[in-house]
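hey m, so remember when u said the tokens were messed up on ur end? i reran from scratch. heres the input so u can diff it against urs
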Amino acid sequence: MKFSVSRENLLTPLQQVAGVVERRQTLPVLSNVLMVVEGDSLSITGTDLEVELVARITLETPAEIDGEITLPAKKIMDICKSLPNEAVIMFEQEEQKMRIKAARSRFTLATLPANEFPNLEDTASTSEFSINQGYLKQTIDRTSFAMAQQDVRFYLNGMLLELTQNQIKTVATDGHRLALCSASIQIEIEGSTQAIVPRKGILELARLFSDDDTDVNITLSSNHIRAETPSLRFTSKLVDGKFPDYDKVLPKQGDKLVVGEKAEMKQSFSRVAILSNEKYRGVRVRLENGTLTSVANNPEQEEAEEVINVNYEGPELEIGFNVSYILDVLGVIKSDTIHMMLADSNSSALITDGEDDSAMYVVMPMRL
């Protein structure tokens, strides 16, 4: 194996792939990336057995000797980052070592055989569609914050993708709040298809894909999701479980509408949160004609109170919320106004963007 590549061409794909590699691995080869060179094509693969990422690079000059080998992910990335921007890096394999040269720098890395490197098996696809990268990233970003972390209900530690005729929905919940976003896609499908993508897979998808207008091809199979562009191929295992019926969670009885300025509400709740209980983060919200009062206190007997003007006409209502959940929702809403629909002090709040009904957020109340 012998080839050369510019640092500029190598660094970004290497960083993308190294992002999925876990540093502490039971299998030594999982700390490595697989490099395969054939003609003027170089592919770099990283995996943790749950998520796999393949980056493809076109070499400026075809390889002198084709081949495949695995190299320590962190070390090769650190070497690449440390070299000058204009450096051309020469890779040459000598038995079980890889010699790396760039200008006056010389490195020798230990390798492991390519045949020890695992790959996620291919299975027959059940659904395929294309979606704008920025559109997909935005849809994930608007819901991913509500995913559970290390919940014993393993199916909550991820995001539900639901496909119906010309539509995709992303749904995430940790049992205390729920985020749902829908987007239009071109897909012919009968009924609906559901897949739960694990938390790490979702976060990697959001990290990898940019806000630009190029399309990404998505393929779903019975146990994998694959997202592919000309330069990247991302594959993740799916969570084997049944996601809760989110439609039953959406409040249907709300008859009290609060319309507020997002920025003012966010600043107000952020200030009150300073003196909330650090563990439970509870804030008492009181609604009266035209005003929203939020009050927080903590075990040290400290208290914060904020009053803001909102558009609300109805009976006085007091309800408790985890302020962090409210702030998370306000952080992803794009327009300047928010709508909050309430029924009573024991029912969940339904929060939506004042100008975009493609996303909905449910926050359960707290007893304070």
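this time it looks ok to me. The chain has seven helices and 24 strands. if urs says something different then somethings off w ur setup not the seq
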